[in-house]
Amino acid sequence: MDKSKKGFSRRTKTILVTGSAAVAGFLFVASGITADGTNLRTGGLEDLRSLVLDRANKVAVLQNQVDVLATEVNDLAITKVDPALSSQISRLEQVAGLAPVTGSALEITLDDAPRESGAALPNNAAPDDLVVHQQDVQAVVNAMWRGGATAVQVMDQRIISTSAIRCVGNTLLLQGQVYSPPFVIKAVGNTSDLQQALNDEPGVALYREYVDRFNLGWKVAILNKTTISSWQGALE
User: What InterPro entries does its record include (predicted)?
Assistant: First the structure.
């Protein structure tokens, strides 16, 4: 016999026994109330029998509901998730940034030019020439996406479709948090493709001109294995 059916029969017996006990208890109490010191073998006995039959019918209805629910529970317990659907959900989670991604990665670091307090500016330089700007970080992020990155992180935050990178002075405002340089961008993907995309990005090429002219910080490293965590904020 199937184990689930066997367990189900045992449960049914338990419920029926409990129901019978409840009915018996009801009869006992009803008998005491109805008798009230008189002979039960009178016309009032028919009313009591009708009441008992009514309660028995209700117990049968409830038992039928229990049987139906128990069958549904058994069916749900043995139901398996469609592997194709599970795989599709996993892919969508990665695209949306809702799942961590592990693999080889490129790590790019951008930093302001070193400058002592009160020191004169380099020749032909303005103060804005010596700091990293929003467009510099955005150029690197854009290059990573064009290079086929499966996940991108700026500082400690996963970048998703609704992420907005903003510059406030020489600090970076990202999803409600403020960061000071150096700014670190990580991208998981084929590191050769990512490096090529970085070299081909016009905004990165412009930034590297300022690296050469004014000594802004620029460092690119290959990470054999790193994990970019999933997006932790709300999806708008």
Answer: DUF881
